Amino acid sequence: MAVSMTREPAIDRSLGWFSVGLGMAELLAPRAVGRMIGVGDRSTVLRMCGVREIVSGVGLLSGRAPATFAMSRVVGDVMDLALLGASLRSPDSNPSRVAATATAVAGFAALDVYASKVELQSSMAEAQQDVPVHASLTINSPPEQVYAFWRKLENLPRFMSHLESVTEGPQQRSEWTARLPGGMQLRWQSEVVEDQPGRLMSWRTVAGSEINHVGSVRFEPGPGGQGTQVHVEIYYGMPGGPAAAKAAQLLAMAPESLVTEDLRRLKQLIETGEIATTQGQPTGKRSMIGRMFSAEES
Amino acid sequence: MRAVCWQGVHKVGIEEVPDARLINPRDAVIKVRKAAICGSDLHLYDGYVPGMMRGDILGHEFMGEVVETGSGVPNLSPGDRVVVPFPISCGNCFFCSQEMYSLCENSNPNARLAEKFWGHSPCGIFGYSHLLGGYAGGQAEYVRVPFADVGPMKIPDAMSDEQALFLSDILPTGYMAAENCNIQEGDTVAVWGCGPVGLFAIMSAKLLGAARVIAIDRFPERLSLAHRAGAEILNYEEMDTLETLREWTGGRGPDACIDAVGMEAHMHGVQHAYDKVKQALRLETERPGVVREAIQACRNGGTVSVPGVYGGLADKIPLGAVVNKALTIKSGQTHVQRYMKPLMGRIENGEIDPTMIITHRIGMDDVPDAYQMFRDKEDDCIKVVVNLAS
């Protein structure tokens, strides 16, 4: 959530649609375009440029690897300027129109360079927080109540099984401790980025933490007032140094299913007041493999 | 305490295990007086339900006496005689609040496993595999009952243990199977399988207004009980099922068809061999002969109701017939809690005598042999009740 806010998708979209529009015009009406920009009849070259524009445009609009497609537009702009320069040698070109077109292309080139830089920066930021976790579940309780339960951060270890403790400190900061297999602990400090009571909360870890992540939880009213849809989004990053191994261990525990199980326990706590379990129930003699997985009495 | 444990395919044994105890605030511990072996326990016995572990305590049909309650169970006190529904249901979630108790969202601690198989998880069930929670079952001296403020129902003094016992599963299951048929005045209902659920489905269909019920089986003792319950009987070893149903309904077919057999159906000829082989090779988990036949037999626009247990994937289901005949298929684990009270009323006023299906009354030591006897339908076995009250 916090990560996606740093993108500038509006620029991608405008450039994307511009590319598609220009590409279609070049592809379908190359002569008219040629006259307009002053290069005369260069149908084949313009059609090829059209195809290139459409590829860049669709790529940008798809939102996948935006930095790459923004960069492809920069390359296209350079090609266009070169082609415009070459066209001046041709007898049927219109020098004043070509000059105007070149100015326009140069302007777009600057915008494209800017867009591709923004995209590169944001994909680098994403690369640091490169393990995305999404989970959602519906809870039979109004959003305000689910939010309130979650917002009291001390409640979280009651349903987040790997958490040992959360302590709220001043300035929206909190201290977190998680258990890892083998008795190891993982500690981090987190700060609230956005807090809309009854609706959402987002947070990020503070520099110096043993694990690096940004996350958000949204509490959306279910359709027709049926409870709350809880949506959790977390992006984990890998810290450097000695903490890296511990963080890797946490991530190896399949964080997506951990979060889903945590949400299930939250739902059980809020709806039923307890967490369903068979731990401590009697059983007959287990097989050797069964004993390894069983927490029951036998 | 002593308990009946699953020890592997075709292996059930009595073991000494730790006593059942309270774990959560809404738990109760029940001292079991009577338990029953269910036809669906045979699917566990035969190894066709995934997620069983050696040492699992079996049993989801039981009644007994409350010995201990958690702080969240104000409705029960020690000494209360109760019958316990097989679905474990919280009473708070979306499905429980709509009386769809067997779809409870909060009672299966292994919901993630069930979701891998089925997309979503049903409720937890006593003694019915780790896919459905891995809860210790009630073929034991004591049993822990979660959400005891929702499930167990007190038994009136005038009602015997045996009269109340089948409210835990098979009576509501047969009733829901008939209710799912949306029976109209004058309807003909065909029921495949005259085991306990089939027999209760026959009685329920009659109570719900069916003009005719046709019972299909091959065991004379079961057919004769079906006849006593008011059904016309069709022995599929002697008559062709589809042809006979067509003839008996003047060519139209039954208005509703109930599959009270499930995943281990016995059929004839090539079809049976095909499913036996595929099931043995684990290429399908069911032998769905009955559901195929029910779909084929059902009249246009009719209903196929499936109380029989299926667990996974079935082959060669005639979906074309479902579409082109505009059939409705209804199924589900039974929402037992929804039916217990009204059915207890019907037992009290004599409309249903659930004890008529009991053929064997045994002690715990005889349970392992009884599984095999029930599975092989030896000694005209229809229903085994285990007496645990000492």
From TrEMBL, chain B:
Keywords: Metal-binding, Oxidoreductase, Zinc
Gene3D superfamilies for this protein: Medium-chain alcohol dehydrogenases, catalytic domain, NAD(P)-binding Rossmann-like Domain
Domain Enoyl reductase (ER): from-to ranges: 8-386
InterPro entries (UniProt xref): ADH-like_C, ADH-like_N, ADH_Zn_CS, ER, GroES-like_sf, NAD(P)-bd_dom_sf
Keyword Oxidoreductase: yes
Gene Ontology molecular function, alphabetical: oxidoreductase activity, acting on the CH-OH group of donors, NAD or NADP as acceptor; zinc ion binding
Cofactor list: Zn(2+)
Family designation: Belongs to the zinc-containing alcohol dehydrogenase family.
UniProt-recorded name of the protein: Glutathione-dependent formaldehyde dehydrogenase
Organism of derivation: Steroidobacter agaridevorans
Lineage: Bacteria, Pseudomonadati, Pseudomonadota, Gammaproteobacteria, Steroidobacterales
